[in-house]
């Protein structure tokens, strides 16, 4: 049984919690946080955070549907779209998703809400192998807890997909329960967090639905419904946390009985506890097995940076065994480096052990400490302090219960909540969506490399953007138009992975072959900073 590839999958979580003309639904905001936390956990699915988009309180159809269209175009394995909030019956008995300003006036609610059919068409037209829609919604009339007329559920049908609604078409949907989440979504989150006793290593969509159904019926709550097209219900979507050994492949993840903060006197003790098996090497694991299992951060390389929840880790290789000084460039093909590169794509968690010789702010006074699980987010090359090229990796700590935060005024400030304005680009680092929108508009949403335009059936144009100099530690690039390119998903990923770079004459270079493959298109409305092009080249150019 194969679990979907997180790198080839996308999720969009949409929720409207605040309304001008209908009762607020504060649990909906918590639904979004809880679901995202579980979907990105490696022991559940391991969806990369940048592939799990949260849309809270969208003000119009564009804000709700643009992220769905982008995800639908990018997804190749699984596309998952979730909506929670009020819904209203349209004039033609169709399902309409309420926005914060959707009125109760039937004459105006039609054009001040979003047709579910528009969302359904986007999902239907996706090239994803599996398409999942989850609806936890109701519509407001004399009460807030009704779903709609009999044929409303039938309209959710998407061929070759799996749809779950939070109640039968003729029964109310409980939007507000007594707990932290809505009643329906609470059961979804519970099965992700706790798994199913006696189940297999993975849980299929059908098994997830059956669990949620049993729990809601036993509590005398509305019965959820499902619609399965082409046996999508057999898809093994998540790992079963209640199944022994199901969290990650052997060697990865937590070691039973070893808590974060556990101290070890020696490398031998780490080896015996299987926290870090090598007695000398700082990286455990291999590219073939799926990536690095564990690393030791202990001041072995002067280019290392420890920021607590973010670690800039220097790869291995190139040191003289006697002097421990760098005598040659590091290579991506060195075994430990290849393992960490694989971890970027497999998303398997890496155990981090800090030694006493590391940064004193985070390291133990003696011996070693196990400091939890991290994910490897990115890599780059740089000239090290000893004059040779080193490869560096950015690792971010996995937190079980920390809610996502967004900045108030600056990309690395952690305060305030306004997901509609700020988009996450790394742990604690966010970009201003408005600046990215200005760059897109300057290029009429065309990819600056290939000219491709992503366009919704209704005519919306959507194109991703990428920062040439990352906003995240240690790069700390500015969130300004000169540091941003408007590119298609393929070229965005190639830039982020260093597969392509851009010369000062704007030729786009394939870094594997060294050949030019195109030209960066510019215009007078958007100036690309050559200093940012050079910065990106210096990270990845190997010739």
Provide structural commentary.
This protein starts with 9 loop residues before the first strand and ends with a helix. The radius of gyration is 24 Å and the shape is globular. By secondary structure, the chain is α+β, with helices and mostly antiparallel strands. α1 packs parallel to α5, α2 runs parallel beside α4 and α5 crosses α6. The chain is built from 11 helices and 27 strands. The longest helix is centred in the first third of the chain and has 14 residues. The strands form 7 sheets. Strands 1, 2, 3, 4, 5, 6, 7 and 9 form an 8-stranded mixed beta sheet that branches. The protein has 3 domains: 234 residues, Rossmann fold (3-Layer(aba) Sandwich); 135 residues, Roll (PUA domain-like), CATH 2.30.280; 119 residues, no CATH class. A hairpin with a 3-residue loop joins β14 and β15.
What are its keywords?
543 residues; Rossmann fold; eight-stranded mixed sheet; alpha+beta; 3 domains; PUA domain-like; single chain
Task: Count the E strands.
Answer: 27
Q: Identify low-pLDDT runs.
A: 139-157, 244-248, 401-417
Count the helices. How many? Answer: 11
Largest sheet: 8 strands, mixed
CATH topology of the largest domain: Rossmann fold
Percent helix range: 10-25%
| Rg over alpha carbons | 24 Å
- Output mean pLDDT: 83
Domain unit count? 3
Chain oligomer state: single chain
The fraction of residues assigned to DSSP E strands is 25-35%
The general outline is globular
CATH class of the largest domain: Alpha Beta
Question: Which structural class fits the helix and strand makeup?
Answer: alpha+beta
What separation lies between the terminal Cα atoms? Answer: 42 Å
CATH architecture of the largest domain: 3-Layer(aba) Sandwich
């Amino acid at each position: 049984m194969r679990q979907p590839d997180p790198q080839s999958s996308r999720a969009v979580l949409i929720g409207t919690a605040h309304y001008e003309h209908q009762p607020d639904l504060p649990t909906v905001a918590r639904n979004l946080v809880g679901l995202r936390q579980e979907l990105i956990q490696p022991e559940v699915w391991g969806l990369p955070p940048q592939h799990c988009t949260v849309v809270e309180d969208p003000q119009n159809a564009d804000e709700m549907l643009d992220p769905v269209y982008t995800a639908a175009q990018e997804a190749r394995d699984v596309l998952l779209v979730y909506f929670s909030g009020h819904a209203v019956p349209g004039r033609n008995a169709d399902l309409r998703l309420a926005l914060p300003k959707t009125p109760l006036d039937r004459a105006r609610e039609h054009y001040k809400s979003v047709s579910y059919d528009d969302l359904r068409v986007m999902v239907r037209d996706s090239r994803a192998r599996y398409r999942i829609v989850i609806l936890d919604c109701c519509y407001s009339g004399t009460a807030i807890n009704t779903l709609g007329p009999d044929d409303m559920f039938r309209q959710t049908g998407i061929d070759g997909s799996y749809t779950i609604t939070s109640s039968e078409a003729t029964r109310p949907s409980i939007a507000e329960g007594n707990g932290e989440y809505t009643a329906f979504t609470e059961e979804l989150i519970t099965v992700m967090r706790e798994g199913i006793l006696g189940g297999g290593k993975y849980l299929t969509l059908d098994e997830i639905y059956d669990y949620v159904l049993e729990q809601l019926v036993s509590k005398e709550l509305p019965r959820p419904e499902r619609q399965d097209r082409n046996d999508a219900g057999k898809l093994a979507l998540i790992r079963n946390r209640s199944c022994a050994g199901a969290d990650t492949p052997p060697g990865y993840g937590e070691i039973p009985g070893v808590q974060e903060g556990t101290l070890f006197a020696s490398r031998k003790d780490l080896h015996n506890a299987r926290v870090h098996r090598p007695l000398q090497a700082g990286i455990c694991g291999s590219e073939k097995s799926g990536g690095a299992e564990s690393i030791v951060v202990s001041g072995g390389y002067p280019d290392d940076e420890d920021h607590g929840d973010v670690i800039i880790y220097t790869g291995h290789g190139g040191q003289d065994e006697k002097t421990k000084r760098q005598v040659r460039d590091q290579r991506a093909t060195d075994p430990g480096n290849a393992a960490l590169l694989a971890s970027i794509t497999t998303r398997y968690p890496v155990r981090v052990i800090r030694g006493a010789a590391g940064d004193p702010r985070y390291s133990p006074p003696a011996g070693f400490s196990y400091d939890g699980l991290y994910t490897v987010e990115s890599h780059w090359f740089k000239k090290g302090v000893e004059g040779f090229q080193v490869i560096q990796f950015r690792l971010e700590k996995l937190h079980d219960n920390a809610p996502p935060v967004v900045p108030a005024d600056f990309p690395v400030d952690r305060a305030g909540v306004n997901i509609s304005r700020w988009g996450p680009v790394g742990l604690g680092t966010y970009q201003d969506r408005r600046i990215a929108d200005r760059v897109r508009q300057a290029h009429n949403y065309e990819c600056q490399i290939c000219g491709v335009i992503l366009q919704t059936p209704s005519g919306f144009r959507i194109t991703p953007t990428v920062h040439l100099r990352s906003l995240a530690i240690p790069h700390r690039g500015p969130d300004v138009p000169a540091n941003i390119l408007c590119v298609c998903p393929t070229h965005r990923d190639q830039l982020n992975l260093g597969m392509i770079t851009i010369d000062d004459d704007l030729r786009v270079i394939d870094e594997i072959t060294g050949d030019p493959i195109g030209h960066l298109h510019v215009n007078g409305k958007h100036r690309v900073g050559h200093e940012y092009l050079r910065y990106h080249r210096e990270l990845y150019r190997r010739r």
